[in-house]
Model the fold of this input.
Amino acid sequence: MDTVTIGLIQASHDVHGDESVEFHKSQAIAKHLKLVREAKSRGAQIVSLQEIFYGPYFCAEQTTKWYEAAEEVPGGPTTKLFQELAKELGIVIVLPVYEREGIASYYNTAAVIDADGAYLGKYRKHHIPHVGAGNNGCGFWEKYYFKPGNLGYPVFHTAYAKVGVYICYDRHFPEGARVLGLNGAEIVFNPSATVSGTSEYLWKLEQPAHAVANGYYVAAINRVGFEAPWNMGEFYGQSYLVDPRGSFVAIGGRDRDEVIIGEMNKSLIREVRESWQFYRDRRPETYDELTRL
Done:
Protein backbone atom coordinates (compact mmCIF):
# COMPACT_ATOMS: atom_id res chain seq x y z
CA MET A 1 0.00 0.00 0.00
CA ASP A 2 1.19 3.51 -0.79
CA THR A 3 -0.57 5.29 2.08
CA VAL A 4 0.17 4.38 5.70
CA THR A 5 -1.36 6.03 8.76
CA ILE A 6 1.14 6.93 11.49
CA GLY A 7 0.31 7.47 15.17
CA LEU A 8 2.67 9.29 17.53
CA ILE A 9 2.06 9.32 21.27
CA GLN A 10 3.30 12.14 23.49
CA ALA A 11 2.48 12.01 27.18
CA SER A 12 3.25 13.56 30.53
CA HIS A 13 4.56 11.54 33.45
CA ASP A 14 3.01 12.83 36.66
CA VAL A 15 4.36 10.32 39.20
CA HIS A 16 6.90 11.88 41.58
CA GLY A 17 10.42 10.56 41.15
CA ASP A 18 10.59 9.39 44.75
CA GLU A 19 7.99 6.68 44.10
CA SER A 20 9.09 3.11 43.43
CA VAL A 21 10.21 2.03 40.00
CA GLU A 22 7.41 -0.53 39.93
CA PHE A 23 4.78 2.15 40.56
CA HIS A 24 6.21 4.40 37.86
CA LYS A 25 6.09 1.62 35.30
CA SER A 26 2.59 0.45 36.17
CA GLN A 27 1.13 3.96 35.91
CA ALA A 28 2.89 4.85 32.67
CA ILE A 29 2.10 1.54 30.98
CA ALA A 30 -1.59 1.82 31.89
CA LYS A 31 -1.71 5.32 30.39
CA HIS A 32 0.04 4.28 27.19
CA LEU A 33 -2.11 1.20 26.64
CA LYS A 34 -5.13 3.52 26.45
CA LEU A 35 -3.32 5.92 24.12
CA VAL A 36 -2.25 3.13 21.78
CA ARG A 37 -5.85 1.95 21.59
CA GLU A 38 -6.92 5.52 20.81
CA ALA A 39 -4.36 5.66 18.01
CA LYS A 40 -5.77 2.45 16.55
CA SER A 41 -9.33 3.78 16.78
CA ARG A 42 -8.21 6.78 14.72
CA GLY A 43 -6.77 4.59 11.99
CA ALA A 44 -3.11 4.29 12.95
CA GLN A 45 -1.22 1.38 11.41
CA ILE A 46 2.21 2.17 12.89
CA VAL A 47 2.41 3.65 16.39
CA SER A 48 5.48 4.97 18.21
CA LEU A 49 5.84 5.81 21.89
CA GLN A 50 8.27 8.31 23.40
CA GLU A 51 11.77 7.58 24.68
CA ILE A 52 11.75 5.21 27.71
CA PHE A 53 8.00 5.68 27.79
CA TYR A 54 7.29 3.72 30.99
CA GLY A 55 8.65 6.17 33.52
CA PRO A 56 10.13 9.60 34.08
CA TYR A 57 13.22 10.84 32.29
CA PHE A 58 15.29 9.54 35.19
CA CYS A 59 18.60 10.52 33.57
CA ALA A 60 18.08 13.93 35.19
CA GLU A 61 19.85 12.37 38.19
CA GLN A 62 22.48 9.69 38.72
CA THR A 63 21.33 6.94 41.06
CA THR A 64 21.33 3.16 40.89
CA LYS A 65 17.60 3.06 41.70
CA TRP A 66 16.67 3.34 38.03
CA TYR A 67 18.62 0.26 36.98
CA GLU A 68 15.60 -1.61 38.32
CA ALA A 69 13.57 -0.27 35.37
CA ALA A 70 15.64 -2.20 32.82
CA GLU A 71 14.25 -5.33 31.15
CA GLU A 72 15.45 -7.87 28.65
CA VAL A 73 14.56 -7.23 24.99
CA PRO A 74 13.00 -9.45 23.82
CA GLY A 75 11.63 -11.54 26.64
CA GLY A 76 10.89 -8.79 29.13
CA PRO A 77 7.36 -8.25 30.42
CA THR A 78 6.79 -4.92 28.69
CA THR A 79 7.85 -6.15 25.27
CA LYS A 80 5.67 -9.23 25.67
CA LEU A 81 2.67 -7.13 26.73
CA PHE A 82 2.94 -4.87 23.71
CA GLN A 83 3.48 -7.83 21.39
CA GLU A 84 0.09 -9.08 22.54
CA LEU A 85 -1.41 -5.63 21.99
CA ALA A 86 0.09 -5.29 18.51
CA LYS A 87 -1.33 -8.66 17.52
CA GLU A 88 -4.76 -7.84 18.94
CA LEU A 89 -4.95 -4.48 17.15
CA GLY A 90 -3.08 -5.42 13.98
CA ILE A 91 -0.63 -2.54 14.28
CA VAL A 92 3.14 -2.07 14.23
CA ILE A 93 4.55 -0.66 17.48
CA VAL A 94 7.87 1.11 18.05
CA LEU A 95 8.48 0.51 21.76
CA PRO A 96 11.28 2.50 23.47
CA VAL A 97 12.39 0.87 26.73
CA TYR A 98 15.36 0.59 29.08
CA GLU A 99 17.16 -2.63 28.16
CA ARG A 100 19.28 -4.90 30.32
CA GLU A 101 21.52 -7.47 28.66
CA GLY A 102 23.16 -10.13 30.79
CA ILE A 103 23.92 -9.22 34.39
CA ALA A 104 24.52 -5.49 34.11
CA SER A 105 24.85 -4.13 30.58
CA TYR A 106 22.29 -1.41 29.90
CA TYR A 107 21.07 0.23 26.68
CA ASN A 108 18.57 2.85 25.57
CA THR A 109 16.60 0.67 23.20
CA ALA A 110 13.53 0.54 20.98
CA ALA A 111 11.92 -2.79 20.11
CA VAL A 112 10.02 -3.01 16.83
CA ILE A 113 6.94 -5.22 16.90
CA ASP A 114 5.10 -6.22 13.73
CA ALA A 115 1.35 -6.16 13.19
CA ASP A 116 1.05 -9.88 13.95
CA GLY A 117 2.80 -9.43 17.31
CA ALA A 118 6.14 -10.76 16.09
CA TYR A 119 9.27 -9.21 17.56
CA LEU A 120 11.31 -8.00 14.57
CA GLY A 121 14.37 -6.68 16.37
CA LYS A 122 15.72 -3.68 18.22
CA TYR A 123 17.68 -0.50 17.80
CA ARG A 124 20.12 0.65 20.50
CA LYS A 125 20.82 4.36 20.81
CA HIS A 126 24.32 5.08 19.53
CA HIS A 127 25.06 8.62 20.65
CA ILE A 128 24.93 8.99 24.44
CA PRO A 129 24.87 12.53 25.90
CA HIS A 130 26.24 13.60 29.25
CA VAL A 131 25.46 17.29 29.66
CA GLY A 132 23.97 19.50 32.32
CA ALA A 133 20.50 21.04 32.03
CA GLY A 134 18.43 23.21 34.32
CA ASN A 135 19.42 23.78 37.93
CA ASN A 136 20.46 21.76 40.97
CA GLY A 137 22.88 19.49 39.16
CA CYS A 138 20.29 18.05 36.78
CA GLY A 139 21.13 17.04 33.25
CA PHE A 140 21.02 14.46 30.52
CA TRP A 141 23.33 12.14 32.46
CA GLU A 142 22.92 9.20 30.10
CA LYS A 143 26.44 7.80 30.20
CA TYR A 144 25.66 6.78 33.78
CA TYR A 145 22.82 4.57 32.52
CA PHE A 146 23.53 3.45 28.95
CA LYS A 147 26.28 1.84 26.91
CA PRO A 148 26.53 3.08 23.30
CA GLY A 149 24.52 1.06 20.81
CA ASN A 150 26.31 -1.80 19.08
CA LEU A 151 23.75 -3.19 16.64
CA GLY A 152 24.23 -0.80 13.75
CA TYR A 153 21.37 0.96 12.00
CA PRO A 154 18.84 -1.75 11.15
CA VAL A 155 15.74 -1.22 9.04
CA PHE A 156 12.75 -3.39 9.88
CA HIS A 157 10.45 -4.67 7.14
CA THR A 158 7.09 -4.35 8.86
CA ALA A 159 3.64 -5.13 7.51
CA TYR A 160 3.15 -1.52 6.43
CA ALA A 161 6.52 0.13 5.80
CA LYS A 162 10.29 -0.18 6.12
CA VAL A 163 10.99 1.33 9.53
CA GLY A 164 14.18 2.76 10.97
CA VAL A 165 14.74 4.10 14.49
CA TYR A 166 17.00 6.86 15.78
CA ILE A 167 16.66 7.86 19.47
CA CYS A 168 16.68 11.44 20.82
CA TYR A 169 20.30 12.72 20.89
CA ASP A 170 21.03 10.61 17.80
CA ARG A 171 19.13 13.22 15.78
CA HIS A 172 22.04 15.65 16.06
CA PHE A 173 24.24 13.30 14.01
CA PRO A 174 23.51 13.12 10.26
CA GLU A 175 25.72 10.10 9.66
CA GLY A 176 23.36 7.51 11.13
CA ALA A 177 20.39 9.18 9.49
CA ARG A 178 22.04 8.63 6.12
CA VAL A 179 22.87 5.00 6.91
CA LEU A 180 19.20 4.36 7.70
CA GLY A 181 18.32 5.71 4.27
CA LEU A 182 20.99 3.58 2.61
CA ASN A 183 19.54 0.57 4.44
CA GLY A 184 16.15 1.24 2.87
CA ALA A 185 14.14 3.15 5.48
CA GLU A 186 10.90 4.71 4.30
CA ILE A 187 10.21 6.26 7.69
CA VAL A 188 12.51 6.90 10.66
CA PHE A 189 11.09 7.27 14.17
CA ASN A 190 12.92 9.41 16.70
CA PRO A 191 11.50 8.88 20.22
CA SER A 192 12.83 11.67 22.41
CA ALA A 193 12.85 13.33 25.82
CA THR A 194 14.04 16.89 25.39
CA VAL A 195 13.40 20.15 27.22
CA SER A 196 13.05 23.80 26.30
CA GLY A 197 16.13 25.94 26.63
CA THR A 198 18.37 23.12 25.44
CA SER A 199 17.36 22.07 21.95
CA GLU A 200 13.93 23.46 21.14
CA TYR A 201 15.26 25.80 18.47
CA LEU A 202 16.66 22.74 16.64
CA TRP A 203 13.56 20.55 17.06
CA LYS A 204 11.87 21.64 13.82
CA LEU A 205 15.12 22.19 11.94
CA GLU A 206 17.33 19.11 12.11
CA GLN A 207 14.86 16.32 11.49
CA PRO A 208 13.08 17.91 8.51
CA ALA A 209 16.61 18.34 7.11
CA HIS A 210 17.25 14.60 7.61
CA ALA A 211 13.96 13.85 5.83
CA VAL A 212 14.96 15.98 2.85
CA ALA A 213 18.58 14.84 2.65
CA ASN A 214 17.62 11.17 2.81
CA GLY A 215 14.27 11.09 1.04
CA TYR A 216 12.14 9.54 3.77
CA TYR A 217 9.56 10.47 6.38
CA VAL A 218 10.68 11.33 9.92
CA ALA A 219 8.42 10.90 12.94
CA ALA A 220 9.67 12.88 15.95
CA ILE A 221 8.15 12.16 19.36
CA ASN A 222 8.71 14.18 22.55
CA ARG A 223 7.12 13.91 25.99
CA VAL A 224 5.33 16.84 27.66
CA GLY A 225 5.25 18.62 31.01
CA PHE A 226 7.54 18.94 34.04
CA GLU A 227 8.82 15.99 36.06
CA ALA A 228 9.39 16.23 39.81
CA PRO A 229 11.52 16.38 41.79
CA TRP A 230 14.02 17.43 39.12
CA ASN A 231 11.99 20.01 37.17
CA MET A 232 15.01 20.56 34.96
CA GLY A 233 12.88 22.05 32.19
CA GLU A 234 9.67 21.71 30.25
CA PHE A 235 9.33 18.74 27.94
CA TYR A 236 7.76 20.67 25.09
CA GLY A 237 5.91 18.02 23.11
CA GLN A 238 5.27 19.17 19.53
CA SER A 239 5.66 15.65 18.18
CA TYR A 240 5.36 15.62 14.42
CA LEU A 241 5.47 13.76 11.13
CA VAL A 242 7.47 15.39 8.34
CA ASP A 243 7.65 14.29 4.71
CA PRO A 244 10.64 13.96 2.32
CA ARG A 245 10.09 17.53 1.10
CA GLY A 246 10.50 18.83 4.67
CA SER A 247 6.80 19.70 4.98
CA PHE A 248 5.03 19.05 8.27
CA VAL A 249 2.22 16.55 7.79
CA ALA A 250 0.95 16.63 11.39
CA ILE A 251 2.15 18.21 14.62
CA GLY A 252 1.05 18.01 18.25
CA GLY A 253 0.61 20.63 20.90
CA ARG A 254 3.20 21.75 23.39
CA ASP A 255 1.68 20.87 26.76
CA ARG A 256 -0.84 18.05 26.61
CA ASP A 257 -1.10 14.28 26.29
CA GLU A 258 -1.94 13.66 22.66
CA VAL A 259 -2.11 11.13 19.87
CA ILE A 260 -0.87 12.74 16.67
CA ILE A 261 -2.13 11.15 13.46
CA GLY A 262 -0.60 11.70 10.03
CA GLU A 263 -0.35 9.89 6.71
CA MET A 264 2.82 8.91 4.88
CA ASN A 265 2.70 8.38 1.13
CA LYS A 266 5.30 6.06 -0.33
CA SER A 267 4.75 7.41 -3.83
CA LEU A 268 6.01 10.78 -2.58
CA ILE A 269 9.22 9.09 -1.40
CA ARG A 270 9.79 7.75 -4.92
CA GLU A 271 8.92 11.09 -6.48
CA VAL A 272 11.33 13.04 -4.27
CA ARG A 273 14.19 10.57 -4.67
CA GLU A 274 13.79 10.49 -8.45
CA SER A 275 13.74 14.29 -8.56
CA TRP A 276 16.74 15.01 -6.35
CA GLN A 277 18.87 11.89 -6.86
CA PHE A 278 20.92 12.45 -3.72
CA TYR A 279 21.69 8.74 -3.50
CA ARG A 280 22.96 8.70 -7.09
CA ASP A 281 25.12 11.80 -6.67
CA ARG A 282 26.68 11.06 -3.28
CA ARG A 283 30.48 10.53 -3.28
CA PRO A 284 31.32 7.95 -0.59
CA GLU A 285 34.84 7.52 -1.97
CA THR A 286 35.56 11.09 -0.78
CA TYR A 287 34.22 10.68 2.76
CA ASP A 288 37.07 8.77 4.41
CA GLU A 289 37.70 11.58 6.88
CA LEU A 290 34.25 11.07 8.42
CA THR A 291 35.42 7.82 10.01
CA ARG A 292 38.83 9.05 11.16
CA LEU A 293 39.23 9.06 14.95
